[in-house]
Please model this.
Amino acid sequence: MKKYNYLIVGAGLFGAVFAQQATAQGKTCLVIDRRQHIAGNAYTENIHGINVHKYGAHIFHTSNKAVWDYVNQFAEFNNYVNSPIARYKNELYNLPFNMNTFYQLWRTATPAEAQAAIENQRIKKENPANLEEQALNLAGTDIYEKLIKGYTEKQWGRDCKQLPADIIKRLPFRFTYDNNYFNDPYQGIAKGGYTQMVANMLKGVEVKTSCSYVEFIKDNPQIAETTIYTGAIDEFFDYKLGKLEYRALKFETEYKPDCDNFQGNAVVNYTEREIPYTRIIEHKHFEQFGTFGEPVKGTFVTHEYPAEWQKGQEPYYPINDDKNNDLYNQYKKLADQQKNIFFGGRLGMYSYFDMDKVIAKALEFYKDFA
Ligand code: FAD
Model:
């Protein structure tokens, strides 16, 4: 006898939103996740009073009002605004590229002066052959050398001359003194952490953690009428057509009990090639910031290192080049032939989605079942 309407593999945002929607409509759901916790990559763990973003810094931002209203049912959001700092050889610059950055680079004070300085720096090319030529064409020498080159090479593990030009389509210069990284009207961090937000979504839903699909389904083949699978699509088919590739990340997190404020900002990017990490995250500044934050003793900092991905490691960023997209499309054909199994989420769809996009996808996806 089938027990549930839905077996949902993965307690990340896609799985949790789907389960929440289905449960609200009276369907029965079982959510399983092989990790020891819910919330997928958005997982935060409260340690010594600080919510640590275990799989990389997560800042919620969206221009989708319906998604914003949806998440606000499950968490209150603070008014955090992402304003990263770039550090290059002990020089500090505001990001994204704005009037503050231009002042720091060239002492320009007005938009006209900044535009003239950029124009003066540009090395124009009609058809840039690689990322270096493209960046020099769009931004000129100083911005490329100090703020783009080293960071990009660390991220991709390759020289900018070997990277395609179209990785950078345009550079969002802002000719105002505005350090807000995102253009979206809604932004913040879920107060109390994203794990709490996902737990609220999953209220009334049965959840089993430390539970891997392959073993579970062997023992419970009839557990549900329909399966929603948010794990990696190639893994589901036991890599029979080959492995999809990812960029991986390594996080080194350290608790500093005797330091209350390590870097004065949540995100500091290290843009020089010689420093192996791309950024340092200081987690307490996502929530205990400015004059309104609760003072918390000690601090957590995470050094983030990009890395080559190997099977068995956590897949972070899909590499959506032609080769991998072709392979994904072949897996997608196999997936479409499956009876009563549907694939969703960043791993099931082999796409990078921000949290708001994955929530929108899951809401839309559920509509097809409702
Ligand atoms: P996941 O969160 O990966 O959830 C999938 C779950 O499925 C996992 O928990 C996994 O354990 C489980 N699973 C997989 N296979 C199996 C199996 N066989 N059996 C059982 N369980 C399985 N978004 C933003 O909006 N803002 C940010 O600042 C931001 N920062 C990010 C930083 C980093 C480093 C990364 C990698 C992503 C970031 N994102 C950010 C994106 C965000 O993480 C995703 O939008 C979101 O996590 C996707 O949710 P998901 O449910 O699709 O996938």
About this structure: Residues 291 and 335 are 51 Å apart (CA to CA).
